[in-house]
Amino acid sequence: MPSIINNPKAVESHLYWNMLKDLSEPVKIQLIIKLKDSLLDRTSKSVDANAQAAYFEIVSKLKTYQGYAKGWDGEDASPLTDEVVSNFCSVLEVIDKSLLQGITIYPETNGTLLIDCTRREAGISLGNDRFSYYVTDDDNVVGENGIPFSVTAFTDVLKRINC
User: Fold this and answer.
1) pLDDT at 36
2) Is the CB of residue 90 less than 8 Å from the CB of residue 45?
3) Fewer Cβ atoms within 10 Å of its own Cβ: the N or the C terminal residue of the chain?
4) Would you state the pLDDT for residue 11?
């Protein structure tokens, strides 16, 4: 059996897991992201720090929004549904992290998730099994409602509206 000392990736992984028990939740998430990337990155290419920061911020916000209970807005807002969270996590698993640099997320009062583009006037509303999007180009608003959710369809729209 190879020694952990002779495998730098194994040493790094071992250290991360030992440190996790004493760290706050946001720091744990950040370290888990780095660990995941270091274990999955077989090409030894550098990781875009800005893309990783965007990913961490979105994961952190999503975790916060998952804790919202019924009436989180002081009125009658619904919490995010498990399906919405699952759908968005499925996208986060496979998406090119650089695409996340142009978005921020917000819970909507009907239990869906708004993916808001920060670079242009555009957004995506993600529901349990469907999503909708809009984009404003030259003062014309275009978009589509009720698109059946799939990771591929969602990612294609995100790329197309170029947040």
Assistant:
1) 59
2) no
3) N
4) 43
